[in-house]
C-alpha cells in the first residue's frame, strides 16, 4: 500500500511521549514489509537543528491555503530507505519554538492555528508531490483534521485522493485539541462542519472528535483501552462518538510495539555491559552503575524500584509520592525516580531524597536515552501506577531488560503484564494492582520486594518470560495492514 502518515512528533526528531516512538517505529516496520510510507511532520528548528540533518531534497514553495489567504512553506525531504520518506514542513511562524506544544506549562495560544496549518500542509503536499495514498493515517488531535479534509469538498474529488481511505489513531484521548469555534475560519471549512456529527463539541471546536466522526477506521493503542474509552470514566466526553463508531465495527485496539533495534539489552550501546535472557551477568554490572549514578548504597541484598514518568495526573505518581515516605522509613528498599512536572510533587520528592540519602536517588528532568536505558537495565522492578494508560511502553522496555513491571490493571498495562501467580509461573511477568490508593500500591510494592528476597527462582522465571516475549512492531504491523484493508470496505 501507499501510506501517508501524519504526526506532530517522531524520534529522533522531536518527542514528548509515546506518539514519537510509534511514529518512528511503525512506519519503519510497514516500510520493511513492502509498503511505501511517507511521513509528514513539522520541522522544529530549535529542536531539530542540532541533529544536523542532511536532506535529500528541499522544496521552497508549497502553497498552503490558510483562512481566506495562503501561506508558503518549505518542504525538506529525507529518504530513510527505498520505501520510507520523511517530509518536514518548515514554517517558522508556527514551528520555530523551544518546545512542541507549550512553554512553562502553558499551551501556546495559537496551537489551533499551528496544527490546522500542519493538516492543510499535509493535504497540499500529497497533491503537489502526487503521493496518491491508499491510506491517510492521522495520529492524535494534531493530525485529526486531515480525516475531515479528506471527506470535505476541498479534497474529496481530488484525483490524488481518489482511492484514499483514512485511519485515525488515538494515542491518548485525554488530549483532544479543544479550541474556540472562531478557529474554524483558519481551516477553510464552512460552518456546515460545525455540528455534533463532526467538529462541534459543547459549542467549541474539537479536532479529535472531527477525526473520530470522519475517519474510515479509528484505532487506539491497546485492546483494553479501546474498551475503556467507550465509558464515561475513560472517554473524556467522546465516549458517545466512539460508541457510535464501535457499533459499526470501525473502532480497533491494536497494541503498540517497541523498537527492538533500539531497545535490546544484548546490543545496547548505552549500557556498561550487555546481557540476554540466557546470560544475565551484565545486568548485575548495570545495577551497580545505576546505584553509583544515583548515589545509592552499593548493595546486592536490596531490591531497586524505578520510575521514569511525567508528573501528570494520568500517571498516578501523586499516589506513589504520598506513600513513599512510609516505604523509605520502614523498608530496606532502594528507589530511583526520574520525573518532572507538578512542582509541589517535585518539591516533596526532593525533600525525601535529602531525608533518605543512599536509599532514594532522584533526577528532576527529562531522562534522555542513555539514562533511560540504564534505569531500565539496572533496576529490579519498575513502577507504573497509572490511572489510565492507553498503551505504555516502559513496561515493555522493562520486561525486555529483565526488570519486572509493577503496574495498575488498566489499558495497555493490563494487556501486556501478567500478574505473578506461583501456580501459573510459566506465564507470569510482573505484579498487578487494581485499586489506586497509597495503601494498595505500597502493599503491592512490599509483595514484590518480598518475592524478590524470598523467591529468587520465581523472579528469575518471570524475568525470562518477559525477556523472551515478542514486543516487536513486526508482531503487530500485520494488524495495521488488516485495518487498512478494512478501511477500504
Q: Which terms summarize this structure?
A:
single chain, 489 residues, alpha/beta, six-stranded parallel sheet, 19 helices, globular
Describe what this molecule looks like in 3D.
- This protein has 489 residues and is α/β, with parallel strands linked by helices.
- Helices cover 39% and strands 21% of the residues.
- It is built from 19 helices and 20 strands.
- The strands form four sheets. It has a nine-stranded mixed beta sheet, with helices on both faces. It has a six-stranded parallel beta sheet with strand order 17-16-15-18-19-20, with helices on both faces.
- A hairpin with a 2-residue loop joins strand 3 (57-66) and strand 4.
- The protein is globular, with a radius of gyration of 23 Å.
Gross geometry? globular
Gap between N and C termini: 15 Å
DSSP strand content: 15-25%
From the alpha carbons, calculate the radius of gyration and give it in angstroms.
Answer: 23 Å
Helix-strand makeup class = alpha/beta
Q: Determine the fraction of residues in helical runs and give it as a percent range.
A: 25-40%
